[in-house]
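Something for you to look into today, if you have time. Just paste the record in under my message, thanks.
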Amino acid sequence: MIYSFLIFSFLMIDCDLNAQKIDSTYNDSTSDSLNANTVEKEENSEEFYVSKKRKALYDIRKLRENGLVVILRTSSSRLEKLRFLSRNQQLSEVQRQILQSRVQEIEQENEIINQSLIKAFSADYYFSDVHFIYDSSLTQLKNGVQQGIFVNKNGKIDTSIELNTEDYFICNYTLASKSKEIEGLVIYNSKMEKVKEPFPGVAVSGSSGLNMLLQLFTDDKKYLERKIIKDAEKLQRNLSTF
């Protein structure tokens, strides 16, 4: 019974979107009304907006000059936990099959997403150079490794591919809007901090309602391929016209 409860709990959690939650958090601090009003006036001032716009333009130039690293999924931690649970001797055969089926679903979805990302950024994005990396190699990248961790257009590690810059940006196909629970392309800096607006660092094609309808009436592979290509086209357009 305990294992059945654990499996059910894990699967409920695992049903969430496979988002790479890299977004940074900010703690709100309390202040008196005078300080709050001062901050509000500063943030709503034209000077404050111009400053943010200038920073966004600077980041766009940095992106164009240094390139974009696109994350490909392995979901290694999730898959390892599911496989570990499936090996438990106290599971029924039905429970084991449920876990094994979930492993296959994640692997198939990852393959579709990764192939679609490589295809989209190779054909529909040309604002900057692009490198592809598996999420399992992100720690190495963060630690300064710039060769032997990138993959070619066939999804294979290619030791000849080198980054040669520390000012790269990172792109992840993840939750683009927590309120609407829809995935899209999100850009981060090399410290894995989400680039702030007005930098056009989020690209989601279509509305959440339209995407839900398309997903209902289109098989998963075609839906994901079409959506990721449209997202990449939108990212290219947003960066080029900012």
